[in-house]
Amino acid sequence: MTMQFSILGSSSSGNAGLLLTENCKVLIDAGFSCKRLCGMLEERGIRPDEIDAIFVTHEHSDHIAGISTFSKKFGPKVFANPLTAKAIQPKLKSSPNWMLFQTGSQFEYRDLQVQSFSIPHDAHDPVGYKFTNGTGDDLFSPIKRMAWVTDLGFAPQHVSQNIQDVDTLVVESNYDSKMLEEDTRRPWALKQRISGRHGHLSNSAARQLLSSIDKPSWNRVYLAHLSSDCNSADAVDAEFSELRQNANYQIETVLSGQGSTLAAV
Predict the structure, then answer these.
(1) What is the rounded distance in angstroms from the CA atom of residue 52 to the CA atom of residue 50?
(2) What span, in angstroms and rounded, lies between the C-alpha atoms of 206 and 148?
(3) What are the pLDDT digits (tens) for 189-217?
(4) Could you read off the pLDDT of 224-240 as tens digits, one per residue?
(5) Residue 41, exposed/middle/buried by CB under 10 A (0-12, 13-18, 19+)?
(6) Which of 11, 141, 235, 264 could cross-link with 135 by S-S, CB 3.0 to 4.6 Å?
């Protein structure tokens, strides 16, 4: 089986992805209730008890809301760096099966090679992930890669280097600058946090990141983690219109409250 991937949901309210290989089924974050995660998995033909592991990016609730109940009911391994696990554990009623790694390390889990890398966000030790599957020895085991990079205020050079060679990329396009500026419900301090260097990527910053990478390997890029209040399909379309016309890869927008179909990486 080739590696398959689906965004279960991605927004400021909740984030989770599903990655399937021949030998494992894993979640990237679990930012929805256990009940909702189970429903999202079943919609894609996956039983919750088939999930082998959860890879956690950081401790904010929109990325870990379902971990406590899901891990207690189904027992997956939960991968995180020590500072993230330390920040999450006091919020949980029981202890998951923690699998700790050091940020920046590369390690294997079943038939996945996992590369973690630091990202700038206002959490204890947030990470992005690059997952590689396949040996490249023959047509039946092609090398496929996907990366998950959300919740970052800007993209340092090492982030660009880690995402350049992947087939499928998930990157955040969190807010439209004008909509954030004009939003009346968010206080000035919160707007500064969101738009700061340890906040989130704007539509413009996400487009600039994609445009800055020379000869990427991407077949599909998902724009994710859209704010429900400070972003819109029209704003994203306006920002990415020219890039979509000229790029040799697909750019798909995952609107707040939605996900993506299960597809080959």
Answers:
(1) 6
(2) 13
(3) 999 999 999 999 999 999 999 999 999 99
(4) 999 999 999 999 999 99
(5) buried
(6) 141
Q: Encoding tokens for residue 163? A: 């995402």
Q: What is the reported pTM? A: 0.97
Alpha carbon distance 36, 53 (integer Å): 17
Give me 66's structure tokens: 């379902």
Token look-up 């696990």 returns 85
Let me know how long the chain is: 265
CA dist list (Å): 118 to 36, 115, 148, 153, 232 = 29, 10, 12, 12, 28
158, 186 contact by CB (below 8 A): no
Cα 7 to Cα 19, 40, 125, 192, distances in angstroms: 9, 10, 23, 28
Q: How does DSSP classify residue 49?
A: G
- Rounded to whole angstroms, how far apart are CA atoms 210 and 177? 18
Question: Closest Cα partner for 223 from 209, 213, 214, 55?
Answer: 209
Greatest Cα pair distance in the chain: 57
φ, ψ for residue 263, nearest 5 deg: -140, 155
SS3 14: strand
DSSP for 171-213, written as a single string:
EE--B-HHHHHH-SSS-HHHHHHHHSTTS--BHHHHHHHHHHS
**With the C-alpha atoms ordered 2, 28, 168, 126, is the resulting torsion angle positive or negative?**
negative
- The residue with tokens 């209040």 is 229
